[in-house]
Amino acid sequence: MSGTIICYGDSNTYGYDARPYLGARFPENVRWPEILNARTDWNVENYGLNGRCIPSYSREIQVVCNCLKRWSAKPAPVWLWVMLGTNDLLHDPGFTAEMTTERMERFLRKLMDCEEIAGGVVRLRLISPVHLQPGVWVESDEMCMESVRLDDLYRKLANELGIAFTCAGNWGIPLLFDGVHFSEEGSVKFAECIMRECRL
C-alpha cells in the first residue's frame, strides 16, 4: 500500500541541527521524513517548522485546513501525521502535559471538522513526541516528566477521537546536547522505528 504522508511537526520534523552556533538543517539523507520518502513507496512530505507549537488560534488552524484541500489532491491514501507538543512545554515552564493535551484536542477536533478529514479523504495520525532529556535547553526534571506523561495522555486522546496513534517516546532516540533535538543518529533511528511501527 502506498500514498501520501504529510509530516506536520516542529524542528525535529524539519530536521534542525542545533550544533552550529546559528543552527542549521540536516541534509536530506538524515531528515526522517526524507528517509521515509527515499526508502518506501510512499510520497512523504516534510511540513516541519522550527519552534512550532500546537496551533491554537483560529487563523493558524484555518491555514492547516486550507492546506488540506491541496494535500487531498496528492496520491491517495493521504495521511496527516501530527507530532507536536514539545515546544508547548518548552516555551512555558508552567505548562503541563494535561494542558498540552487539551490544546492538542482542540486542534485535532477543529481539523476533524474540515471537509477533507470529515469525508475520509485525509486520515489522521497523532504521534507523541520523543521525550525531553536534561540538557542546555532543558534544566528542569519536571519538564522531562511532563513530556513522558504525554505518551499516555495522547494515546487516550487518539482513542477517544478514533484516530491512529504512534508513541515515539519509548524508542530511545539519541538527542543532542540541548536535550531537545535529534542527533543525526537519532533522526535515522526515528525513521527506522516509525517505518517498522507503521509497517511502511
Low-confidence region ranges: none
What summary fits the major beta sheet? 5 strands, parallel
Look at the helices and sheets and give the structural class. alpha/beta
Number of strands: 7
Into which percent range does the helicity of residues fall? 40-55%
Shape: globular
Mean pLDDT comes to: 95
Output the strand order for the largest sheet.
4-1-5-6-7
Oligomer: single chain
Q: Percent of residues in beta strands?
A: 15-25%
Structural topology:
Layout: E1 4-9, H1 11-14, E2 16-17, E3 24-25, H2 32-39, E4 43-48, H3 58-71, E5 78-83, H4 86-91, H5 97-113, H6 115-118, E6 122-128, H7 141-161, E7 164-167, H8 184-197
Helix pairs in contact: 2-8, 5-7
Question: How is this structure best described in words?
Answer:
It is a single chain. With 200 residues, this protein is an alpha/beta fold. The protein is 44% helix and 16% strand. The protein is built from eight helices and seven strands; from the N terminus they run E-H-E-E-H-E-H-E-H-H-H-E-H-E-H. The chain has helices at 11-14, 32-39, 58-71, 86-91, 97-113, 115-118, 141-161, 184-197, and strands at 4-9, 16-17, 24-25, 43-48, 78-83, 122-128, 164-167. The strands form two sheets. Strands 4-1-5-6-7 form a five-stranded parallel beta sheet. A two-stranded antiparallel ribbon has the order 2-3. Helix 7 links the parallel strand 6 and strand 7. Helix 2 packs across helix 8 (184-197) and helix 5 packs parallel to helix 7 (141-161). The radius of gyration is 16 Å and the shape is globular. The mean pLDDT is 95.
